[in-house]
Amino acid sequence: MPLPVVWIGGAIFSALLLAEKNNQRKNVELHRLRPLSKTEKKPSLKLTPSLLNKGARKAKLKNGSIVCCHVYGVILHTGIWIDGAIVELHGSGLVRVVSPERFLKDRSGEKIYVATQANGKVLFDLIAANRGKELVYQYRDYDLLKNNCYRFTYSCLSDSEEYINSFTEFNEYLIKHFQCDIYWDEALIPKKW
Predict the structure, then answer these.
(1) Does residue 38 lie within any of the structural domains?
(2) Superkingdom of this entry's organism (predicted)?
(3) Does the global pTM surpass 0.85?
(4) Do residues 87 and 150 both lie within one domain?
(5) Interior angle at CA 27, CA 21 and CA 31, nearest 5
(6) Tens digit of pLDDT for each residue in 61-99?
(7) Which residues lie below 8 Å from residue 103, measured CB to CB, with a gap of 6+?
(8) What residues contact 190, with CB distance under 8 A and at least 6 apart?
(9) CA of 134: how far to CAs of 110, 128, 130, 137, 146, in Å?
(10) Residue 90 is part of which domain span?
(11) Could you tell me if 27 and 48 lie in one domain?
(12) Pick from 74, 89, 60: which is nearest to 189 by CA?
């Protein structure tokens, strides 16, 4: 008999936690365009990709946009949008170009997210797009913690190799590069012809 009570308690706790996360996300959306207060001197990560919450905004991709998707609901995978496709570092170490559908295949997410500014404009870097193109079909010594998709994506942006262990740390590098708050909005994926 105690087991169903635990399940009910867990379900109630989860529902309350989800409601709180939804409220936080709505609050961020409401305050996106307000100027920084005196206490907020540095840009920061304001909105992360969410499997549970539908985003209020969708952003049109540009060459050199930084994109991501969820992998099994645990981590996020990143790449660079180029000419209707995504350049990514695969777990085999191969730098490859994949379609948006392939980018999502065998992963838990159904959406691709793109890094944007507070006003919803996509953050992009054409030099990063060119670097990504130049690296296609090359191999890197893939390591989940030391030589991963975050490091690859940031190396295309910066032309430097940094050890980046997490999506949070990856966003810190994006903030340094773009010098603005980072919001991850759902990407508007163009329809095939």
Answers:
(1) no
(2) Bacteria
(3) no
(4) yes
(5) 150
(6) 999 999 999 998 888 999 999 999 999 999 999 999 999
(7) 67, 69, 77, 79, 86, 88, 112
(8) 61, 84
(9) 28, 10, 6, 9, 22
(10) 44-188
(11) no
(12) 60
